[in-house]
Amino acid sequence: MEWLSSYWWVIVIGIIMLMLIIGFIKTYNKLKVMQIKVNETLSGIEVALAKRHDMLIKMLDTAKGYMKHERETLIETIKFRKGMSISELNEASVKMDSVASTINAVAESYPELRSADVFKELQVGIRDVEQHLQAARRLYNSSVTSLNNVVAVVPSNIVAGLCGIKKEEFFVAEEYQKSDVKMSF
Amino acid sequence: MNKDERLEQEIKKKLVPLRIWCGIVNGSLGLFCLSVLLLILSIFLKPGMAILTVFIVMCVVSSVLVITLGIKVGSKVLAFREYIKNNVMKPIFESYFDNITYFPKHYNTGCQGEGNIMVEGWSLAEGEDLIQGVYKDVPFTFSNTELFHVRANGNKVPLFKGQWLTFDFKVPLERAIILRERNFKHRTFRGKAHAKTLQKQKSRKERDKHISINTDSTEFNKKFFIISEDQHMVFYVLTPHFMEFLFHLDEAVEADTSVCFAGTKANFAFNNNKYMFDFKSNKIFSNNLLEEFKEQCHREAKCITAIIEELLINETLFEKRGGN
């Protein structure tokens, strides 16, 4: 047991090193899982935006008789492709919002368009897609908040810094209105 | 004299003999307590055999009186309760909803279906006041419900007592979503212990099947525990507006709330350890009995309408489902 009294410090350092390595691996795995989740949820936004894009194109096709000149420009405005960055997705979403309001404004001016079955169905469909987009956006932002919180605090920020894991950008969109909830009983 | 006034007169007429009977029971209970007290005193003071015998006889007679009159008055109070429920509660619900049916001795079987997961480990359901109706094309079922776990020796462990509401939206939701208030507690120590045992018995696979989900609202996460297999569906159903509504609803109903969206149904369970539309014998003497009962009925009906109205706000999910 003499060697133990001479080399105890080696064992202590060894245990500390082992604990540090385990801690590093655990934090790294946690950050990676969070990053994967962020990417997964981002794909949810992409899917919803792609659906919304398709629906808007269909709506523009249905309304082409009422907006001949603007149609091509609007289609060009809302160009959508896979693999867009968050800021590009944000931009695309804003543009889709404006195109949707333009279509709605046209529908307001032409009652026959508003009452057409195809148009009505598309309106219902686009509302559903918008709800899904809102859900995907909130889910993504919630995952980003979790990741960013972990990346910001000690000691996980050291691991994140060493492994090149950075804070992610939020997907900004209009907020839900929630102040008008009233209970009357 | 209109219908309401006539009904009020009739209830007042029924209340007079009931109050007399209850008064007699209370009197005989008082007599029983007095005679027990005197008997105890006489044991210590030793006044003599004759007085002791008188007190014993008083004790026996008053106890017999309390038991026989208690049973008789109990059945009279029950009959009065049934009368008031049929003649006051039902018309109030009919003024709010369509196709109202009322079954006094039945309970909402929603707890046996998908809602089974809301209160874990129960094996016996009891209840009363089953009300079925329709509001804005959405059928609903309401009842006072009690859930128990029955042990091997036949003992019943109470796990839930409160109101169970089920709304039928016709088109099924793809994945189940369960929301449970974090302090959705089993009201008794035995119930709590049973819940803990159940958790321990579950295999890891079973526990992992439903993932606990956090929403984007920290306050909501603090208050509610959400389990589902589909995170996107949770965010789709639980809009910020709906989460805010659940917060307000929980405060308004003064109960531990649990909500479950599964299959075609939305189940709401309010665990408050009491039955709605119930009143004890001592309430018979209250002058505001009828007003208080009516207020309770209106409150419950408004709660149901508020939930349906809120669910219908999510037009792409619930309105479409309800409308079909």
Write the layout of secondary structure elements.
The complex is a heterodimer of chains A (185) and B (324).
Chain A: H1 2-62, H2 68-77, H3 86-109, H4 111-114, H5 117-152, H6 156-163
Chain B: H1 3-45, H2 49-96, E1 98-103, E2 124-135, E3 138-150, E4 156-181, H3 189-201, H4 204-209, E5 211-213, H5 218-223, E6 224-228, H6 231-237, H7 240-253, E7 256-271, H8 289-313, H9 315-323
Antiparallel strand pairs in B: 1-2, 2-3, 3-4, 4-6, 4-7, 5-6
Helix pairs in contact in B: 1-2, 2-8, 7-8
What features would you describe in this structure?
The complex is a heterodimer of chains A (185) and B (324). Chain A is an all-alpha fold. Helices cover 77% and strands 0% of the residues of chain A. Chain A contains 6 helices and no strands. In chain A, helix 1 packs parallel to helix 3 (86-109) and helix 1 crosses helix 6 (156-163). The model of chain A has no long low-confidence stretch (mean pLDDT 83). Chain B has 324 residues and is an alpha+beta fold. Chain B has 2 domains: 3-92; 97-323, no CATH class. Helices cover 53% and strands 25% of the residues of chain B. Chain B is built from 9 helices and 7 strands; from the N terminus they run ααββββααβαβααβαα. In chain B, strands 1, 2, 3, 4, 5, 6 and 7 form a 7-stranded antiparallel β-sheet that branches. The two termini of chain B are 44 Å apart. At the A-B interface, helix 5 of A face helix 6, helix 7, helix 8 and helix 9 of B.
In short:
Chain A has 185 residues and is an all-alpha fold. Chain A has six helices and no strands.
Keywords summarizing the entry:
heterodimer; A: mainly alpha; rod-shaped; B: alpha+beta
- Main β-sheet of chain B: number of strands, strand sense, barrel status? 7 strands, antiparallel
* Rough outline of chain B: globular
Helix segment tally of chain B: 9
Domain count of chain B: the total is 2
Tell me the number of strands of chain B: 7
Give unreliable regions of chain B as ranges. none
Give the largest interface.
Answer: A-B, 24 and 27 residues
Report the total helices of chain A. Answer: 6
Strand content of chain A: under 5%
Portion in helices of chain A: over 70%
- Rg of chain B, rounded, reads 25 Å
H and E order of chain B: HHEEEEHHEHEHHEHH
Structural class of chain B: alpha+beta
Oligomeric composition of the shown chains: heterodimer
Percent helix among the residues of chain B? 40-55%
Strand-residue proportion of chain B: 25-35%
Report the strand count of chain A.
Answer: 0
SS content category of chain A = mainly alpha
